[in-house]
Amino acid sequence: MSPNPVTPEQVAIEIGADPTDPRLIDATEAAWALVEQDLDWTAVYPSPDPWPEPVIRATVGCAVDLFRSPGTAFGYFINDVGIASTGTDVLRRWRHYLDPYRNQWGLA
Q: How many whole angstroms separate alpha carbon 87 and alpha carbon 107?
């Protein structure tokens, strides 16, 4: 796992939360783990430095969704971007940001 390029402070700025809130820190780490798993980077392909802005944006957005999800009713909440689902696929809203950076594995 590569180091998380997104800090809890970046996520806190988006939603006006306390960056030292343990739930926010956990949401930030969990979002990065989901994004990194979706990108499917390996040791063969070194991580870019710096990470592209769309990858950062997807990680921050996913962290916001994860942080807000426990307090949402009926599996949806409304934010400044639109209506977001809090279902099991939390990356669904952010995958289009990640598509250009995902490793493509074909069949041999």
A: 31
